[in-house]
Request: fold
Amino acid sequence: MSASPTPLAMIDYLTSLFNAQWDRCAIADAAQHDRQRRDFFDKRIFPLLNDCWHFVMYKGKPCVYEKQSLTLNFPYPTPRVVKEAEFKKEHRELHLVVSMAAFKKKAVVHSLFDIWSERAQHSHRPCANLAQHSRKPCSVPALFLFRVHHRARKEVRLAFNPTGDINELRAQAGVDAADIARGVLVVNTFVGLPVYAGLESVPLLDGLALEIDPLYWHLKHVICAGDLDATRYLCRWLAYILQHRTKTEIVPVLIGGHGTGKSMFVKKLAQMFGNHFYPMQNPQVRRAQSRAHAICARILRKIVWLTQFLRKLCVVLFRICSSVATTTSAPSSCSATSCADST
Reply:
């Protein structure tokens, strides 16, 4: 069974059919070419692009949510979000060529990104309006005389919710009933935890096998100091987070001296949660550090101001001393000259 064609291959194939149909026409009608070309863009090319590219506002900037590359016949495992300007640069070489041989004109190249983003290369008056004000029939191809208008691009909004509740996702993304009617989609940016990968192949340990497991032994005898009830409680607390993908109202606090193995357990949690793990220090320590930084910055600004003031003061004193030395040395030289003349 042959693989399905890529979207770009489908675009090239449909464009070749459209060009072949018009190259065989004995009589070229500009108005008919205009209508068919617009239908070709609206009904054939634009849906293919709209299935692969979606519009999204990310951090207040227009971006493209790319689900699938035009050169691949399968979607991305994780769709990517790219700024529109950067996305246009990446795809500036993707285009289709509309043959104008029936009108004895050069072929016109259309960027696929411009077709999808409703940016036409030419935006003059429609040919029908031009023909109404002219006695001669309009012989110029209408391709050069109108702006392409397509159906609305698919719009997506991003939200983060590990539980995957669609109502919470819509509320977080600000999607209302009007947006749902327009077909606005909500994409959950939570793609899972690293611990979920290969979880089905992990064997279940019990009895002696569980007791000799290094991680369980460290959790029981180091973190929980051999307390079986505390060990079971901590295991169930962690299992609840992984199964329900939500926070609990319990915060375990690890208290111990340096080198007792607290960081070993925390590093294992970091491997399980991946990018969703965030190490945070004691809030009181952070507030104390911020206050200390503010005090140091204030003292440093005062030192800089005092240094500049002393530098200017030294310059002024030096100029005053120089002028005083000049005025005191001038009479003595004159008196010495007069004494020499009298002798």
Notes: Residues 195-276 form one domain. The first strand starts at residue 53 and ends at 58. Residues 283-342 form the longest helix (60 residues). The mean pLDDT is 78.
